[in-house]
Specification:
Distance between the termini: 28 Å
Helix content: 40-55%
Structural class: mainly alpha
Low-confidence stretches: 1-63, 523-527
Mean pLDDT: 85
Strand content: under 5%
Number of helices: 32
Largest sheet: 2 strands, antiparallel
């Protein structure tokens, strides 16, 4: 979580807890005192700030820092050693989080994500655990002050790193869309026959796992031959698609070469080199000289195009003489934009603008971004971005215990997924505020799903349609049956899974993995008629578990009125359900409406989490330091009001990481 967001959204939470009011006051005084340290007064100039970023942390021990309680060497390091590193050390660190290995502020900066989690749990008071030795309010303030100053060391005016350029092949969805756009045939070859991609950072379009193996080369070759065979087999039923690829019978050499150029340009998403077209022409002539007919010879040419790296890979040009980042060219920008928003190659309009070198113009780029978001092809964001980020792809494969829920069937499963996809599509298409992801006064229901929700079904059919809602227990993705289903077990709800989903996907601060020796839930039952909440409270009573569970379980408790199919219920095991919970920072929740309201009151946190994931998806790479500049800008804007989806998209498209690249060796 961003330190700036923590001070804006988290300081109020810290003040709201009586035991920590003193810590907040101490932190506030220290920030004033810190500004009086001579070395920091010197840093008021931009040059001094830049020098500090390159040389040392402003809170690292140095002359003039002897009395500074935020000095790492003289004070703060000992506090973390005393209160944190007895559990979070190199040998079997608790939760897999090793804090002892980071021995100076530079190492802390290199592991920013880990230390932002530390900052968060110190801020809300969930760490150290209740049964462990506790820092005083003043000491907690020093630790938070050090982390706030250290983790904010980033100068967006001088930071000039768009991140490593990922070399990646098309994933299955992108490959099938590229074949469709090139040939006009919707074959779904990759989705149906290729193995699923390995997900990285939550997405299947991130570059590192999308390498090319010998087995995949064989798969692509078989797919290319299948495309050629389908084109030939369907030439009577789809003559336009056939002519688009095979051209007229008996072409002259000049016509033939022009046809190969056009095919290659479209396949490669940029003009193909003349030498490549020459090789295709030679291949065709060699085949014809071997007494193969025009159709067979063209089939070899098409196979060669579909096997070319320029088709299978998202290739961007290196500039070996450039040591600094440089702009991607217009064709590369067109591909970045189209694969981001449509999961497919750029269309004719984008390529024509790229050919004229006009796409880079900010006004033109913004117009194209808005055009593409309004286009039906942007529905790819629903399945490929939201489907992965929110875990909605799991709806189609989630197992339900038919003995416990005999009424569940594929029609209901389909209606659940259709509801959230229609909601997400409206937010994209109509450019609705991001807050409607969390809480909307409308949804999309058919008759079956309305009955499932115990809502009126008059006038509804098998197809979902927009319905106005008056009860805030429904509306938004969090209380949709689809999401509640995939965050449940086959036969019951799962309180910590639902809770950690909120902490992770919505707030961007997941709990660490549980220790390996945690018993199964059934192991703690005594055979009585306990509610699921009571079972989980017994299950998480261990001091080793309590620290994490008290961060996530209150979110899960707030959703406990929804059963494993997302239906509203009032009782569990014959007892009234208790949806209340208290977070470590003292905030109280009482059901789903209170949960929604709490999340809506921190729009910067949710916006930052969404934007961070959308940036990973857009760039196809892991987060880097410079990405924080983009996220900071969005979070700052979200503190004023919840942004619309297009604002987040445009901020990413118009950012340095999206518009620029650097050579891999730098």
């Amino acid at each position: 979580m961003n330190p700036r967001d923590l001070r804006l959204a988290g300081s109020a939470r810290l003040r709201n807890t009586a035991p920590r009011r003193k810590a907040f006051a101490v932190l506030k005084r220290l920030r004033v005192r810190l500004m009086c340290v001579p070395i920091l007064r010197v840093a008021c100039s931009a040059a001094a700030i830049g020098w500090m970023l390159l040389t040392a942390s402003p809170v690292h021990a140095q002359p003039g820092q002897q009395d500074n309680p935020l000095s790492w060497d003289r004070n703060v390091r000992g506090l973390f050693s005393r209160y944190c590193q007895s559990c979070h050390k190199e040998a079997e660190p608790s939760g897999g989080i090793d804090l002892a290995s980071d021995t100076d502020p530079r190492m802390i900066l290199n592991n920013r994500d880990t230390w932002e989690q530390v900052q968060f749990v110190l801020q809300d008071g969930s760490m150290p655990p209740a049964d462990a030795r506790q820092p005083s309010d003043e000491q907690r303030g020093w630790m938070l002050g050090f982390l706030a100053e250290t983790l904010e060391q980033i100068d967006c005016q001088t930071l000039n790193d768009p991140g490593p350029p990922p070399l990646r092949r098309l994933n299955r969805v992108e490959y099938d869309n590229a074949i469709l756009d090139l040939t006009g045939l919707d074959l779904s070859l990759a989705v149906e026959t290729f193995p699923p991609e390995t997900s990285s950072f939550g997405f299947d379009n991130v570059g590192q796992p999308l390498a090319m193996t010998p087995v995949q080369v064989e798969q692509y070759h078989a797919a290319a031959r299948r495309v050629v065979a389908e084109l030939i087999a369907t030439k009577e039923a789809a003559p336009a698609a056939y002519r688009r690829i095979f051209g007229p019978e008996g072409p002259q050499d000049q016509e033939l070469r022009a046809h190969f150029q056009t095919l290659s340009d479209r396949a490669f998403r940029r003009p193909a080199q003349a030498s490549w077209v020459d090789r295709l022409t030679e291949l065709y002539r060699f085949s014809r000289a071997a007494d193969e007919d025009h159709e067979t010879a063209l089939g070899h040419v098409v196979t060669a195009i579909l096997m070319a790296p320029q088709f299978l890979l998202r290739v961007e040009q290196n500039r070996p003489d450039e040591e600094e980042p440089y702009p991607v060219d217009d064709y590369e920008l067109a591909s970045r934009l189209s694969f981001f928003l449509w999961s497919r190659p750029p269309d004719r309009q984008l390529l024509e603008l790229a050919a004229k070198e006009q796409l880079r113009d900010p006004e033109v780029l913004r117009q194209q971004t808005m055009r593409m978001l309004a286009d039906p092809r942007s529905k790819a964001l629903v399945q490929n971005f939201f489907g992965q980020w929110l875990g909605l792809r799991g709806v189609t494969t989630h197992e339900v215990d038919s003995d416990v829920f005999p009424e569940f069937d594929d029609d209901l499963r389909g209606a659940m997924l259709a509801e959230v996809e229609a909601l997400l599509w409206e937010i994209i298409r109509e450019d609705r505020p991001l807050s409607e992801l969390l809480d909307s006064d409308y949804s999309y229901l058919n008759a079956r799903l309305a009955k499932h929700y115990n809502l009126p079904s008059d006038g509804l059919s098998e197809t979902v349609q927009r319905v106005q809602l008056t009860d805030r227990r429904r509306g938004g993705v969090l209380t949709s049956a689809a999401l509640l289903l995939v965050q449940s077990d086959p036969n019951r709800t799962n309180i910590p899974r639902r809770g950690n989903y909120i902490a992770d996907r919505i707030l961007g601060n997941p709990a660490p993995p549980p220790p390996p020796d945690v018993p199964q839930l059934e192991a703690v039952t005594d055979g009585g008629n306990l509610t699921l909440r009571e079972l989980f409270e017994k299950h998480s009573a261990s001091p080793a578990c309590a620290g994490c569970h008290e961060r996530i379980d209150p979110f899960g408790f707030a959703l406990e009125n929804y059963d494993a199919l997302g239906r509203w219920r009032e009782q569990d095991a014959g007892q009234a359900i208790d949806p209340t919970g208290r977070l470590p920072d003292g905030r109280e929740l009482d059901g789903p409406v209170a949960l929604k309201q709490m999340l809506l009151e921190s729009p910067a946190t949710f916006t930052r989490t969404l934007a961070k994931n959308l940036l990973i998806y857009a760039l196809g790479r892991a987060p880097v330091e410079a990405d924080r500049c983009v996220l900071d800008a969005l979070a700052a804007a979200a503190n004023q009001q919840s942004p619309r989806f297009s604002e987040v998209v445009w901020t990413i498209v118009n950012s340095r990481p999206f518009l620029e690249r650097r050579n891999p060796e730098y």
